[in-house]
Write a structure and sequence with these properties.
Strand content of chain A: under 5%
Protein name (chain A): Branched-chain amino acid ABC transporter permease
Structural class of chain A: mainly alpha
Largest interface: A-B, 40 and 47 residues
Membrane topology (chain A): Multi-pass membrane protein
Structural class of chain B: alpha/beta
Strand content of chain B: 15-25%
Number of helices of chain B: 11
Mean pLDDT of chain A: 86
Number of domains of chain B: 2
CATH class of the largest domain in chain B: Alpha Beta
GO molecular function (chain A): branched-chain amino acid transmembrane transporter activity
Mean pLDDT of chain B: 89
CATH architecture of the largest domain in chain B: 3-Layer(aba) Sandwich
Helix content of chain A: over 70%
Number of strands of chain B: 10
Distance between the termini of chain B: 35 Å
Bound molecules: adenosine-5'-diphosphate, magnesium ion
Largest sheet of chain B: 6 strands, mixed
Shape of chain A: globular
Low-confidence stretches of chain B: 1-14, 268-272
Subcellular location (chain A): Cell membrane
Radius of gyration of chain A: 24 Å
Oligomer: heterodimer
Largest sheet of chain A: 2 strands, antiparallel
GO cellular component, one term (chain A): plasma membrane
Chain lengths: 436, 272
Amino acid sequence: MSEPTETPATRLLAWLTDGDLRLLSVLTVSLFVLVWVLSFFSGIREPGRILSQIQGVAFIAVLYVMLALSLNLQWGYTGLLNLGVAGFMAIGVYTMALLSMPTSAAVPGLGLPLWIGIPGGVLVASLFGALVALPAIRLQADYLAIVTLAFSEIVRLVIRSQEAASFTIAGTRLGTGGTDSLALPTSPVKVLLYEDPSQPAAIAAASPTPLGDILFTAGEQIGASPAVMESLVYTVFLLVIAVAFFWLVSRIANSPFGRVLKAIREDELVASSLGKDTRLFKIKVFALGSGMMGLVSILWFLERGSVTPATFVPDLTFFVFVALILGGSGSNMGGVIGSLVFVVLLLESPRFIRRIIRESFDPPAPPETIFDALSGVDPLLGYFTSQESISALRFILLGIILVYLMQQRPDGLLGHRTEVASNVDLADRQQTEEES
Amino acid sequence: MTAQQSRTADADSETDAILSVQDLRKSFGGITAVDGVSFEIEPGSITGLIGPNGAGKSTTFNLISGAYTPDSGTIVFDGTDITGYRPDRVATRGLVRSFQIARELPEMSVLENVMLAPQHQLGETLYRSVLPGFRSGVETQERELRERAWETLEFFEIDHLATENAGNLSGGQRKLLEMARVLMTDPEMILLDEPLAGVNPTLEQKLIERLHELKADGYTFLFVEHDMDIVMNNCDPIIVMHQGQKLAEGAPETIKEDDRVLEAYLGGEVEQ
Ligand SMILES: Nc1ncnc2c1ncn2[C@@H]1O[C@H](COP(=O)(O)OP(=O)(O)O)[C@@H](O)[C@H]1O
Ligand SMILES: [Mg+2]
């Protein structure tokens, strides 16, 4: 009975996984068609607003792709359990703010240009990566996990502390803004599109640059505001950097350096008994990955225009892990696909589904207690579609999916994949045989 | 008494031993696994290290190769005191070991396992493996290594498994992979911990022949093996350990006759 229905499905799967790029394109298109459909049913029908929704989801998806790739370098390839992803991200963006916020701002910085602030943030994040890894790297893997998790929380607590909110060094006043949201320097994309980028978007849009003018006019055709067009340009810019991340991580993986990383993950004593100074490799890769995480968060919050320490709770680290595990850690394409699936299906779709339920059923206000919620269908819907339960539901959903994956597909959605750790094709001897 | 002996050994060792171990000790909790062992290895020899199970042979290997730190004693290799060196520093000096229980890298292919081994690979530097200008040099070296790796795998008759994950190999094949990996490091001296366990007799003979070839090329071996015939026919000298101590040392003929050795084997042997 089940066989004839299974064959086309398996054939389709085989066709899809035949080429990575094909799989990626088909998956991306399907996921964003889904976003379209979901927006449509949640009452967002104008092309401009749908574009804005798709852009918003794509923005987060690309960020997660980059985070998953950075984590894949540390954890997927080298087996270093970094539970402090959020901490390194916080260091990156707050360092950038300290360096590049104008001296005249409410919470001032050093007023240095972004081309110093951004590399500065990345550098400090990777320095801390090396520093945190240094003592832990000699110990067992579990210690690194504990140290990084604790470190990440310390970073967050320091940033939100009274002392860090505003302080003076050598007569210069600086600060993190404490628990409040901290305004960030003007994004470079704004500079590209507006003559007067420091103004609020509504005012700045009145005087666009020639490039901005072209884009804004195009946006007007489909009813997309300049703000949406600006974000769209930013997302495209992020996409370019994500491709660079992919290139970098793949190149590392397919090299003798990556071979040592893999060996460390598999059995560190073997790697060192063959003469590899494993500590050096671990520190290098930890610093690099942490710097990349710092860069992602700089790019993320420059677009947003502000940042708060509350963003950098350990949940964020957990999300990045889920994204990577979903696709299959140790594989770059797995990390990319896992991130897309995670962001669209798990992170963003609950929001739409809640709207759809609210639109179509008009459930009552959420009941006071779970017992009231269980008294009928309407109160139950009301309960599940309240703002708080959406995030709780998201966690429950995540838990179920993780348990399912661990049991059914422990190697991730893509299954087991091998990416050869060499920059030549190992199975191919032809070349050398002809030479000799 | 023992101090006296080791001092006499010292006096003798004005010769050019490649590896010299003095009064090595290591205990784990209550168990003294290695209890004051001293010996010297001549360059270009195949020295046998035998003794009943639990005699401390593998622990001695772990101490020499840096996997464990000795409680006391000194290890001098090629004129350098390497006591307490990390495993990678011992290996880069040219002293490489194999593991008694094969430690393949399971999620890496057999070829990747073998290509990991060579020392001083250009592509092990991060910037060289990434930056376009440098990478062509890395690729050239990788092609050379790939050729050497294939040849080594052919010799050990595991080339048909080259692209297989090492975790899928049988016990005997894993031992061969270990040997292949050790040889790919191009060492001066090799510590082999029961490398023939689980290897079929035909290949066993071939490996022993290879051992002698390598010896003729100037390689030095310290060789732990259970099969007495193999040890007696191929190793000279032979060191016998028992309960963490060195029981006897000498040519195969003398060891064969030694009463203490016979007693240790008859009294303490637990065949696996
Ligand atoms: N890591 C360890 N922890 C505790 N005891 C050990 C350890 N390694 C070896 N031993 C003990 O040391 C003794 C010598 O073991 P080993 O060196 O493996 O002997 P052999 O290789 O000669 O059979 C044994 O009693 C063994 O149980
Ligand atoms: Mg042993």
